[in-house]
Specification:
Distance between the termini: 61 Å
CATH superfamily of the largest domain: P-loop containing nucleotide triphosphate hydrolases
CATH topology of the largest domain: Rossmann fold
Number of strands: 26
Shape: globular
Number of domains: 5
CATH class of the largest domain: Alpha Beta
Number of helices: 31
CATH architecture of the largest domain: 3-Layer(aba) Sandwich
Strand order of the largest sheet: 7-6-8-9-5-12
Helix content: 25-40%
Radius of gyration: 31 Å
Largest sheet: 6 strands, parallel
Structural class: alpha/beta
Length: 861
């Protein structure tokens, strides 16, 4: 076929036009790596598609995608050394290919339309050149460079998106092969360190992509399903091109006659190829292709085309040609570059991993579930997903939490608001409380409680024993069906989550939940405290937890402990944090890890206990910036009721008091700030991302990002309203600006106003809006406000008055050890601040077994 011909087809299966050149390149390499500056191979030259040596690779005996297998492989380095000899021959050729810029090594995903090359790959190319021409004198310098690259990858691993992590993983494998090819005295140690880094990066990649499944060990066929499909696709593409360009060769057409698809996916892929063949009048369709289309079990996939249909395809406009690849500049930039492509506003959570999806499925089955896990395991992600799916399934879900901030983060209400209670109501006797709930003023509340199908309680660790007992008793009374005995919790499905190792209940047992008597009137007995009416006994400190309430056991929960940590990737750090959480005694290495680590915490956030401490430090730091003036942004709030809304219309403004967006935001250039929304997870811009204001962008309505997703039109309207109000307050155009932030991961981004919409408890016809610049001063925040955040740099002062569990919350905000500094602390203060709640640990052991503790005991090495 002439080289200048352009093969194109509009595929009914794909619903879009595509260039066959792009299609077959994708088949030849799943990463799309075989692209060149100039086309050097004509379609008729099938030698380009001879991939028998490079692509027809025997399957390993075991999957390398499972985290456990990565560890097992580390005990079999000789087998990797054997495989490395083949790769090393390619490695020596890489520098020449890189300098020509005509093709990339197979381990590189090019993103060839971008002008610059990512830093990780650029450095690897340079190091490869040094390695190819290495001498004994240059080797120490070479290994220092590679060690620096390792440190950089470890430090930034939590901020990389999946593509960037994948690049790091591929580069580290090349470095490991280099180390294994050397036979000097230090090679074994270097290889071990490199392999540990590869394991960390691989583990992080699997976390981000959600590809790891605990069933892989028992279902190896699932592990290789994608690989088999990809391999079959490559071979099919080669043989089809070969047969089409050599229609007279019976041996080539014979291969096509014997093709067995093996899966619906592969059969669908064959359909796309056949459409291409029909659409190309210049192609000579071999006899085998005609037989493939018209005979056998594939007839359903490939029906005969009419002449009219063929003409329609032949006359369809050709798609635009693929953009030609640009020559790259010689310099390199970081993967955290300033390239700021349009991404709109996205506030989406990460995809679920296997254990998270299993938990959502369990919740959807209708069982009562209590799930817990360490900070960073994705409890909130699971909860939000489950709530969305439950509501999509038609179930009325009430979302609650003990505090307003925790409730608002889930578009929920406090437990007091859900029950229609005032603070003094819980001081009443149970009989009086039931009587109050049966009165006319509580009619709408009773209706709401009876219509609830699922009750969600978040941050359960802060809910006390007595309150939970009251809650269950009143729900049973209100949901009692015609005088019959109500099932536990009134028949509600109960979804409860939180971490009892974190923040405890505040001021428990202020009153007896049976008779309402205050604690100061109780009597002390050998078994605990008893009220004057004989209710009890209670040991205040031991029995304060929700799981000690009789109402807890009546729920008959299914217990789930989420094990996979997504916030940190450094395994020794993760293990030490687990020890801190579970109260396992720290060993020497743990103390060294936390207290003597080399930290880089410039522009770090201080975690403090009280709001007044955070406000004081932020105000002081802001006042120190004297060379720049303050830019102030005032929020825009709105409450919307639909005409059909029949619920109460007062009291909702109190929700804004706990809103994550501040009513006023004061900003200065050079100020340390923190992001309050998941702005762009692919670029690492998430809730808690830290950065510095480096400038201002003049307001231009046309530059406001396009808002997508639910309530997009309403959010856009409120952002425009916020912008107009802001401009009216500042008559001088040069003062009408948005902040530009350089985040710690290297991205520079203009931060525009964001509108958060809260549908309180999913009530139809009721929505709360707050629009504001989603930034706060980042020098200090309270530990309570930091819950759910991922912080790159954090300072924790152990002299603060921590309650048990609060120190662990603070330490687990950090993504890496390098980004954590414990200020004014020693071993004694660390042990004291971490503390231990024996009742909590007995509860966890009883529900999840001794293995929960055995997995984390001992050394962190």
């Amino acid at each position: 076929m002439p080289e200048e011909e352009h093969w194109a087809v509009t595929s009914e299966y794909l619903g879009a036009s595509f260039d066959f050149n792009d299609l077959v390149v994708g088949w030849a390499s799943p990463l799309g790596t075989l692209s060149t500056t100039q086309q050097t191979t004509a379609y008729g030259d099938i030698s380009f598609w001879n991939v028998s040596k490079d692509l027809q690779i025997s399957m390993p005996q075991k999957s390398l995608s499972a985290k456990g297998d990565l560890t097992r492989v580390s005990n079999h380095l000789p087998s990797l050394q054997h495989a490395s000899r083949v790769v090393m021959q390619m490695l020596y050729a890489y520098p020449r290919m890189m300098l020509r810029r005509q093709t990339f090594p197979p381990f590189i995903h090019p993103h060839w339309h971008q002008e610059h090359l990512p830093e990780a790959l650029g450095n690897c190319m340079s190091i490869s050149q040094l390695f190819a021409s290495r001498t004994p004198e240059t080797m120490p310098f070479l290994w220092k460079i590679i060690a620096a690259e390792q440190d950089r990858f470890r430090d930034k691993l939590s901020t990389f998106n999946p593509w960037e992590v994948h690049l790091c993983l591929q580069v580290m494998i090349i470095y490991m092969i280099m180390a294994m090819s050397e036979s000097d005295a230090d090679s074994k140690e270097r290889t071990a360190i490199l392999f540990e880094t590869v394991e960390l990066i691989g583990s992080r990649f699997l976390d981000l992509t959600g590809s790891y499944s605990s069933s892989e060990a028992t279902e190896p066929s699932r592990t290789w399903e994608v690989w088999i499909f990809a391999e079959s696709r490559r071979r099919m593409s080669c043989e089809l091109v070969d047969a089409m360009t050599n229609p007279g060769h019976s041996d080539k057409t014979q291969k096509l006659e014997n093709w067995e698809t093996g899966s619906d996916n592969l059969a669908a892929m064959l359909k796309v190829v056949v459409e291409f063949v029909w659409a190309s009048p210049l192609a000579l369709r071999p006899k085998a292709m005609k037989q493939l289309v018209g005979q056998g079990p594939l007839t359903d996939f490939f029906p005969h085309r009419s002449t009219v249909k063929r003409k329609e395809i032949e006359q369809s406009p050709s798609p635009l040609p693929s953009p030609k690849r640009q020559e790259r500049a010689a310099s390199f930039i970081s993967v955290s570059s300033d390239q700021d492509e349009h991404d709109g506003q996205e506030f989406m959570g990460p995809p679920l991993c296997k254990e998270q999806q299993d938990l959502v499925d369990l919740i959807m089955s209708g069982r009562n579930v209590f799930f817990t896990g360490s900070a960073g395991c994705g409890k909130s992600t699971v909860l939000k997903t489950a709530i969305t799916q439950l509501r999509a399934d038609g179930r009325n879900v009430a979302v609650t939490a003990p505090t307003g901030r925790a409730a608002l983060n889930l578009d929920g209400v406090t437990l007091f608001s859900y029950m229609g209670w005032k603070p003094d109501d819980v001081k009443l006797s149970l009989d009086k409380l039931k009587c109050t709930m049966s009165g006319k003023p509580k009619q709408k509340t009773r209706k709401s409680l009876r219509e609830t199908h699922v009750l969600v309680i978040d941050e359960i660790s802060m809910v006390e024993n007595n309150f939970l007992s009251q809650l269950e008793a009143v729900l049973c009374a209100i949901r009692n069906n015609q005088g019959n005995r109500s099932p536990p919790w009134g028949g509600l499905q109960l979804i409860v989550t939180g971490d009892f190792c974190q923040l405890p209940p505040v001021d428990p047992f202020q009153n007896c939940w049976h008779c309402g008597e205050t604690q100061k009137e109780w009597q002390v007995s050998e078994e605990g405290m008893i009220c004057s009416n004989g209710h009890g006994p209670w040991e205040i400190d031991k029995d304060k937890w929700a799981f000690r309430s009789p109402a807890w056991e009546t729920a008959e929960f299914v217990y789930v402990n989420l094990k996979e940590i997504h916030r940190q990737s450094d395994r020794p750090f993760i293990k030490t944090l687990q020890k801190c959480r579970l109260g396992i005694p720290l060993v020497e290495h743990d103390f060294e890890l936390l207290l003597d680590n080399e930290s880089e915490v410039g522009n770090a956030t201080h975690l403090v206990c009280k709001k007044i401490e955070a406000a004081k430090l932020n105000d002081e730091k802001l006042a120190e910036i004297t060379e720049h003036t303050i830019k102030e942004y005032t929020c825009e709030d709105d409450v919307w009721f639909s005409p059909s809304y029949k619920g109460p219309k007062d009291g909702f403004l109190t929700y804004f008091e706990s809103h994550r967006f501040n009513p006023k935001v004061q900003l200065k250039e050079t100020q340390l700030v923190m992001l309050l929304v998941n702005l762009n997870l692919k670029k690492g811009l998430a809730n808690g991302s830290q950065g510095v204001i480096v400038g201002w962008e003049k307001i231009d309505i046309d530059k406001l990002p396009v808002i997508e997703g639910p309530d997009a039109e309403l959010k856009t309207e409120h952002v425009l309203l916020f912008t107009e109000q802001y401009k009216r307050r500042l008559s001088e155009p040069e003062k009408q600006v948005w902040p530009v932030v350089r985040f710690n991961n290297g991205y520079k981004k203009t931060v525009y106003p964001v509108c958060l919409v809260h549908s309180v408890n999913g009530q139809p016809g009721l929505q709360l809006f707050r629009t504001q610049i989603p930034l706060i001063s980042g020098w200090a925040i309270t530990i309570h406000k930091s819950q759910g955040m991922t912080l790159e740099r954090v300072i924790v002062n152990l002299k603060s008055a921590f309650v048990v569990g609060q120190a662990c919350v603070a330490l687990s905000r950090a993504t890496t050890l390098r980004g954590l500094h414990i200020q004014e602390g020693n071993r004694e203060s660390l042990v004291k601040s971490l503390g231990r709640n024996p009742e909590v640990h007995d509860f966890l052991k009883g529900k999840f077994g001794e293995q929960l503790y055995a997995d984390h005991a001992g050394s962190t090495n």
